[in-house]
Amino acid sequence: MYRTFADTARQRPGAVLRLALWSAVGAAPTFVFGHAVARAVDGFLAGRPAAACGWLGVLLLAGVAGALAFRPLYAALAAIVEPFRDDLVERVVRGALARSLTGRPDTGAVARLTHQVEIARDSYAGLLMVARGFLFSTAGALLGLLTLAPAMLLFVLPPLLLALVLFAALLALLAARQRALLLGEERLAERTAAVAEGVRDAVACGGEERLRAEVGEVVDEQAALARSMARLGALRALILALGGWGPLLLVLAAAPWLVERGAGPGTVAGALTYVMHGLRPALNTLVQGVGGGGLRLAVALERIAESGPPPAPALPPALPPTPSPTPSPTQPPALSPAPSPALPPTRPPTADPIPGRPAVELCGVTFSYGPRARAVLKDLDLVVPEGDHLAVVGPSGIGKSTLAALVAGTAVPSAGRVLVHGRPPGDPRHRVLIPQQAYVFGGSLHDNLGYLAPGADSAAMARAVDAVGLAALVKRLGGLGGMMDPGALSAGEAQLVALARAFLSPAPLVVLDEATCHLDPAAEARVERAFAARPGTLVVIAHRISSALRARRVLVLDGSAAVSGGHEELLAGSPLYRDLVGHWRSEPAGGLGDPDGVDPVARTDLPVDPR
Ligand SMILES: Nc1ncnc2c1ncn2[C@@H]1O[C@H](COP(=O)(O)OP(=O)(O)OP(=O)(O)O)[C@@H](O)[C@H]1O
């Protein structure tokens, strides 16, 4: 997957040697400091200030040499770290490209993962610096002690070694805890996102308490993990105290014993310098660096490994696109109906429509958003013959969009059966659903329009553009190849793009769920007429009553009952339809006139008169 340090040592021994060499030069001051301090102290005490100052000069020179060694040291480090980074980047890009061939391109992957690669690179470089710094500084200090006063090692080595052993044991615990913390964070994020998305359903089912308890449990687990991580952090401080201050206290306590055995004050001062300026900072950096950056590196590498190329190469999907459980630019996210049995289908059927069967058949369909929620649709029967143009009207909240979702297969009935062209709904080759919220993506207008009809030629696109009235936007963008910024489009323009896309799609059934709500009445009329003239079946969840007037048939949803028929028929037979139309008739006319005296711009979903 990527080069380990051992691989690099084999492949680039020169770089590793250079790193070791310059690390040795960088650590030279650690070796020289103790001796220079010892000699300088002894020199001053013996009344030889010139010699003492000379040793102080040596100390200064060693410091300068150590500082100068850092420049080539970093160059040697880069020669080791950059190939490691290249390996990671290559893996990430290969993974993203391979996934894009599966038909589910993860466009955020490269940006996201290269960020993780940078974290891994920095952590790896930091870890190498820490490890080599510890090794060379400790070696320099111990060598200095050995040459200055070997007996001192008796007091320095035992606490240092004990601290290192304890730290190694703690590191394993820290890594396990850090991983658990990270996974817990992910669990918590997933849980809260799921709760936020489904809060409407949860409230509808009276499930707030249960949700609160479930989320609370994950939060408590996470808090317990964070507390235990903090306790391990305190243990780390104890280990540092043992390995850093232990040798210092022991050397101080042993000083009289050493002096009795002939060690001068300079030797004691030199030994203390080794402990204070060599061993203690080295241990400190090791514990902090490995405990922080090392764990981060391990986690980042794990995430990158997970994002690697999929096991087997996959081919692009056949066109038209196979159904995907993720929302497409014409398919709104699936509704979240009752947990069971009303789950959205994860793999819609791909069989061809059955010739001669109606475009839509609903048989005894009941749907509710939760097991204890009131049914939105109850025992609904409906047949929409092939080639029909049906408008669905009814008061706000009566279930018009729910019906559209059931027909499109993004919601599944709690009881009853829905068929589209004789097949279970949900196959994007059989139907296209345009919701109120238009899904338009950043890219060229051509790509947006061709999303559901990849083979569409420019003549077909021009026809769709003309049919829905998109020419002004095409002109503004400089042609079909013009790039679109979805954020810069007006809501009406975005709807027109989504509508033109649906117009181009080969799907024989089009469901418009208030898909023209941001258009003015004239533009809406043009769109509906265009779709009505398009071969296939049209179902319009009406936003204005004029949609009902244009349709061949109207379905009036009325909670417990639903009636359908022509406009005149319904005026005569449906009190609710009469109420709806009467309501708008009495509204001040706001747009085009109509032969029936109905204001065609009036909304169809105003609340029913509560009489
Ligand atoms: N995801 C959901 N979770 C829970 N309840 C929902 C959900 N979606 C809709 N409802 C409820 O179901 C009922 C029917 O909603 P629907 O959107 O189908 O009605 P509508 O007739 O299309 O309304 P409008 O014309 O206002 O869009 C409403 O009471 C609504 O609050």
UniProtKB/TrEMBL annotation:
Keyword Transmembrane helix: yes
Ranges for domain ABC transporter: 360-584
Protein name: ABC transporter ATP-binding protein
Coiled coil residues, start to end: none
Subcellular localization: Cell membrane
Sequence ranges of Pro residues compositional bias: 308-356
Membrane topology (UniProt): Multi-pass membrane protein
Alphabetical UniProt keywords: ATP-binding, Membrane, Nucleotide-binding, Transmembrane, Transmembrane helix
Top-level taxon of origin: Bacteria
An example molecular function term from Gene Ontology annotations: ATPase-coupled lipid transmembrane transporter activity
Pfam families: ABC_tran (PF00005)
Gene3D superfamilies: ABC transporter type 1, transmembrane domain, P-loop containing nucleotide triphosphate hydrolases
Stretches that traverse the bilayer: 15-37, 49-70, 124-146, 152-176, 237-259
